[in-house]
Amino acid sequence: MEDRQTNEALQQRITELEAQVSGLVESNRNIVNALRQIEHWIVNASKVLTAQAQAPGSGEQGQ
User: Fold this and answer.
1) Is residue 14 part of a domain?
2) Residues spanned by the domain of 8
3) Quick check: is 62 in a domain?
4) What is the residue-wise DSSP string for 33-46?
5) Does some domain include residue 17?
6) Over the Cα atoms of the chain, what is R_g?
7) Cβ contact 32:24 at 8 Å
């Protein structure tokens, strides 16, 4: 009887841990997606700033 209770308790704990792992995996996906978006913004901002710096009349002259 005690073995059965132990097995049931362990199975319940396994179920709880599986749910936690699933939640962590989803959170990690969201974090990765957010980091990819931030990387995209940084790359675009870098391209814009590079283009502005290379444009005629750019720089700090006349400001």
Assistant:
1) yes
2) 1-41
3) no
4) HHHHHHHHHHHHHH
5) yes
6) 27
7) no
- Which tens digit of pLDDT belongs to each residue from 20-57? 999 999 999 999 999 999 999 999 999 999 999 999 88
The token duo for 25 is 């995996």
Give the count of domains, the chain.
1
In the numeric block, the tokens 């283009």 are attached to 51
Tokens of 52: 């502005």
For residues 50 and 42, what is the distance between their CA atoms, to the nearest angstrom? 12
pTM for the full model?
Answer: 0.67
Three-state DSSP class for residue 1: coil
The pLDDT, as a whole number, for residue 59 is 59
Give the three-class secondary structure for 56. coil
